[in-house]
Amino acid sequence: MAQGLVLRNGQAAPLSKVPILAAAEFRHAVLEAVGAGSRLSAFFGRRLASGGFGLLAVLADDTEGVLSLLGAQPTESYHALTPDCPQAHLFEREIFEQCAVIPSGHPWLKPVRFPPPSSAACGTMDFYRVEGEEVHEVAVGPVHAGVIEPGHFRFQCHGEVVQHLEISLGYQHRGVERALSGGPNRLSVHLAETLAGDTTVGHGWAYCQAVEALGRAEAPPRALALRAVALELERVANHIGDLGALAGDVGFLPTQSYCGRLRGDALNITAMLCGSRFGRNLLRPGGVAHDVDAQLVEEMSARLETLGREAASAVNLLWDSPSVTGRFEETGMVSLEDCRRLGLVGPAARACGLNLDVRRDLPFGIYRYAMIPVSSWHAGDVFGRAQVRWLEVQRSLQFVRELLGSLPGGFLRREVPKLRTEHVAVSLTEGWRGEICHVAVTDAEGRFSAYKVVDPSFHNWFGLALALRGQQISDFPLCNKSFDLSYCGFDL
Amino acid sequence: MLKVLWTRFKQGHRTMEYPAGPAPELPRRFLGRPKLDASLCMVGCPGCSSVCPTGALGGGKLDLGKCIFCGACAAACPEQAVEFTREYRMAARRREDLVAQGDGYRLAEALEAKSRQLFGRSLKLRQVSAGGCNACEADVNVLNTIGWDLGRFGVQFVASPRHADGLLVTGPVSENMRPALLKTWEAVPSPKLVIAVGSCAIAGGPYRGHPEAHDGCGKFLPVDLFIPGCPPHPLTTLDGILRLLGRIG
């Protein structure tokens, strides 16, 4: 097997060390690694200084805790991986859209984000169609019923039953990933924090860690601990919000009302740290911008205590109400095998019984020293995804309380020197939706010649499509909320 | 059932008294409306404008519409000429009012009498998210939770633009969302309002100048209310809407 360049999470290496394989050899090596249990964390094309495009694959080996990088430089086309490796499916569509390199034999080579000025208007493509008597098509979006991001959903239904769902996104495409290339500059960290606004800390950390790896300046321990406090609070807030919304989608109003408020309480604890409910302006390359003192720790701990107690009383109502569990169980099932093949990540994967978590498997920051238990479930249904979220809320709250009680001392931020030239860094974090992967490549001046962002939603949207098969179309909101994926994090 | 009732009892009544009572407590590190005192500036000092990521500062002026409230300017200023206050009230009726100078900041005034008669006690809004990061949407949604209970002012988000009295727009208006935004606008019956929430919808936010987006919705729609912030605190948004309706102010 061709050997890739092996890196740890948050490590950088000279670009010249990434092996560039012949297309056939590259294909073979990636398939072999995925067959042996690795996952495609990122797979993208980047413009080369010499002209043309280079492909770069980042394979995550969760059991060994390492990342392996492989490159190839096909000229116009190459033999697509997707037929033998479904998790490459969207990556290869993206490569085709961004670089015009054709993955030949790709079964589903359609647009991903319709970047303007593209020939097709966003959302216009050949949707997969089921033909037959009584078969009908339901088109929803981009503007949806609630206060929610835009996306287009095309259902093929037989009666009330969904035979197939195709999801077409790109409406939130605003060029944020493209604008990161050429950095770092004074705007870069803000672009990273707004890749997905509800994942400010997750993406912000991935960005900071990539810059720190390239600049050889690790953030001090106290900063790493405070980052983890913010990351877990982000998880708690979003999971509590989702549990409330799930309750709302089955018409169970008590938990919906309480959780809506409690989510705000969690956000307000983050705001105690940095002034922003979303954790904006806390993380900066080299460390963090805000400290805590004993009084603030005490106040935060007291609020966390209350939050934990009130969240338990609100959420436990769900498990005690047969009208709720009856709707959650066996709705929107994804099998463990499909989950693996599609390369799902985060709570969606853990709810199928796939026990993976970047915090444990490819640890970064404070998680290299402090363990947080991984929560998983076996059923792969809405109930499983709800249950995993609740387990994670409890464990994260516990973790934050412990962390606040034992914060390392010392300074907060280190100056990051000029980035190393012609290097590549891979930075992964476990956001509340799952694995976030940033890959930064620098040019001869130490500027980003390429900056790749993979939001967990990029892996997981197809999981939602699959979960809908054989479901009643009226269960779509419930299934959708159980995944709660990001449109802007996908559209970039 | 008993457990549901017991939990209801324990969770208690949580809707805030604002605006009749005090406004909810803001975090100590909250960055509210920034204030620039250009008279303190040293001649030729590029301090703040050279660190501002969105070009909100320059020539002795601060544009609240472009500001993403990162605080970099205040940290960089050697003379404390620019500082972030704890003032959450920021909404304005005209784009030019957001270019603050000194203390003369003009907060949003209420709609004129006829519109107030129409919308003052019942305002139905269709929200359109057009290319942002979803943080504005999240903190607009918060207004529907029991703590804020936007419904008590007769303000409600509706699913169909046909049922709406106006649009609440977030995001810089991505090119991919432009047609859908305009179609939604056309589907709202007149007379109708536009509320632009967040620095993206006002001036493009961190995506200003991107060819994939349009630097805010003002180019396409007649905006009646600008609510600055990145994202605006729910209190800033609520204050703005209530001012527009003449319910406070």
Give the arrangement of secondary structure elements.
The complex is a heterodimer of chains A (492) and B (249).
Chain A: E1 5-7, E2 11-14, E3 20-21, H1 23-35, E4 39-47, E5 53-61, E6 66-72, E7 77-79, H2 89-99, E8 102-104, E9 135-140, E10 152-158, E11 161-168, H3 176-180, H4 188-193, H5 200-215, H6 221-249, H7 253-274, E12 283-284, E13 287-288, H8 294-319, H9 322-328, H10 336-342, H11 346-350, H12 358-361, H13 382-405, E14 423-431, E15 434-442, E16 448-454, H14 456-467, H15 476-483, H16 488-491
Parallel strand pairs in A: 3-6, 7-8
Antiparallel strand pairs in A: 1-6, 2-14, 4-5, 5-6, 9-10, 10-11, 12-13, 14-15, 15-16
Helix pairs in contact in A: 5-6, 6-7, 6-13, 6-15, 7-8, 8-13, 13-15
Chain B: H1 2-11, E1 34-36, H2 47-51, E2 57-58, E3 61-63, H3 72-76, E4 82-84, E5 99-100, H4 113-119, E6 123-129, H5 135-141, E7 155-157, E8 166-170, H6 178-187, E9 193-197, H7 198-203, E10 225-227, H8 234-244
Parallel strand pairs in B: 6-7, 6-8, 8-9, 9-10
Antiparallel strand pairs in B: 1-4, 2-3, 3-5
